[in-house]
Write a structure and sequence with these properties.
Blueprint (H helix, E strand, L loop, with lengths): L1 E8 L5 E8 L7 E6 L9 H12 L3 E5 L2 H4 L8 H16 L8 E7 L1 H11 L8 E4 L24 E6 L7 H8 L6 E6 L16 H17 L1
Parallel strand pairs: 3-4, 3-5, 5-6, 6-7, 7-8
Antiparallel strand pairs: 1-2, 2-4
């Protein structure tokens, strides 16, 4: 596989950076777009590891920065600009002159996947599946403020990764939400993982092993 640094237009005047991971072999008809979370960017180790793993398995993987990160800012953009970035990344991959997969799925860490799911629920992003790397179901300590209403409108298959120590996603509440979805879904639980799947120091598992597990489960889900 190889990485190609790209520029993605998200409006008439604004652009963001991206990295397209191109497979050497494999089906090459499926692409996965990866969006970062609120506090990081497209170079987050989890996203980089997943993009590499997907490309090695024969899938295109496109990572991109939201506009605020492109400008070196810490606070996320307003919803409209977050939407534009996601839609721009989708257009880039769907209309790529050389690498144009027939099927495109959306994935992301926390906020990145939530925005994709909102767009999909509103019929504004034509992805054929969604992968959540830690869904922000509620603010920490505020389990009565669930961000779930749009999930019930999604018709495409969904894969959720959730850590047992995630302060943004109580696992019992997530399971209750999933039980009410009409679309097909799968849940992979990361034992001991927090919102970024970091483990306590007492766990005899290296972070790279968690990333490898996520890659393996994602490829298994895609191939199934």
């Amino acid at each position: 596989m190889k990485d190609e640094f790209v520029v993605i237009s998200i409006s008439e005047s604004e652009k963001v950076s991206g990295i397209l991971s191109i497979p050497d072999a494999g089906p090459k008809d499926i692409g996965v777009i990866l969006a970062h979370g609120a506090g990081n960017d497209m170079n987050h180790p989890l996203l980089a590891s997943l993009a590499e793993g997907l490309a090695n398995a024969g899938y295109f993987a496109l990572r991109f920065n939201f506009h605020y990160r492109e400008m070196g800012k810490e606070s996320p953009d307003n919803q409209d600009l977050l939407y534009l970035a996601w839609q721009g990344a989708y257009r880039f991959l769907a209309e790529h002159p050389q690498h144009r997969p027939k099927h495109i799925l959306g994935a992301g860490k926390s906020m990145g996947a939530r925005i994709a799911s909102q767009l999909a629920a509103e019929g504004m992003l034509a992805v054929e599946g969604l992968i959540f790397l830690g869904y922000p179901l509620h603010p920490p300590g505020k389990k009565d403020r669930l961000k779930d209403s749009h999930l019930y409108k999604i018709a495409t298959p969904m894969l959720f990764f959730a850590g047992t120590r995630d302060q943004f996603c109580d696992l019992q509440l997530l399971r209750q939400v999933l039980s009410k979805l009409t679309a097909p879904w799968d849940l992979e639980v990361i034992e001991g993982g927090d919102h970024s799947f970091h483990l306590p120091g007492s766990y005899p598992i290296h972070p790279t092993e968690i990333y490898e597990l996520i890659v393996c489960k994602t490829v298994e889900w895609l191939s199934g």
